[in-house]
């Protein structure tokens, strides 16, 4: 694997991810924004069929935010909020939760899906899943992963299968992008599907 230089800023920042889900008449729209992903999807439906994916919830919009400070000593505090209200606040050392007490000594990885589904439901379960998934990319903040000159991803075979972009048929042709990483330590700035901007503008007009 090609070497990446350590980022000298690591230890003073935080990884953030925001997931915004909006259900409307005839369409469901979602966006994900974090240091590495500005992505969105819009799915049209006529109710029960796709054309179509149908939301299982009646709420018009749900916003899930997570924050995971850098962990130079392998300890951090992971937080998740749903619509601005904190639903998870975990002290994590290595792979184990230390607090809150009911979750102490549970693994952030092994068996996570089972214990999370036993303890949470609805949006709190979604937030727990998103928070746990955020533990993977946050470790990239320690390195300058967007500083190497453009080169093919398959020059680093270890990256194969590590995310959707690093699978075939794209893996053999995709290139590194220089300067693509965003830093949301000071707060989230969203990239949204164009229809979401229009809908928000109409609501506040």
UniProtKB/TrEMBL annotation:
This is Uncharacterized protein. It comes from Paracoccus lichenicola. The lineage of its organism: Bacteria, Pseudomonadati, Pseudomonadota, Alphaproteobacteria, Rhodobacterales.
């Amino acid at each position: 694997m090609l070497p990446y230089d350590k980022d000298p800023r690591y230890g003073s920042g935080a990884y953030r991810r925001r997931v915004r889900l909006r259900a409307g008449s005839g369409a469901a729209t979602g966006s994900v924004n974090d240091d590495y992903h500005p992505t969105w999807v819009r799915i049209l439906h006529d109710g029960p069929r796709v054309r179509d994916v149908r939301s299982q919830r009646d709420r018009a919009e749900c916003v899930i935010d997570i924050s995971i400070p850098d962990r130079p000593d392998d300890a951090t505090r992971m937080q998740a909020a749903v619509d601005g209200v904190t639903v998870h606040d975990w002290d994590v050392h290595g792979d184990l939760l230390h607090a809150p007490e009911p979750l102490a000594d549970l693994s952030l990885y092994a068996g996570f899906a089972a214990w999370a589904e036993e303890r949470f439901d609805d949006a709190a379960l979604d937030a727990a899943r998103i928070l746990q998934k955020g533990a993977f990319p946050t470790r990239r903040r320690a390195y300058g992963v967007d500083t190497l000159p453009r080169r093919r991803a398959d020059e680093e075979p270890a990256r194969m299968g590590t995310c959707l972009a690093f699978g075939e048929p794209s893996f053999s042709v995709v290139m590194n992008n220089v300067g693509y990483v965003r830093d949301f330590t000071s707060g989230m700035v969203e990239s949204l599907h164009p229809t979401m901007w229009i809908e928000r503008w109409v609501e506040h007009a």
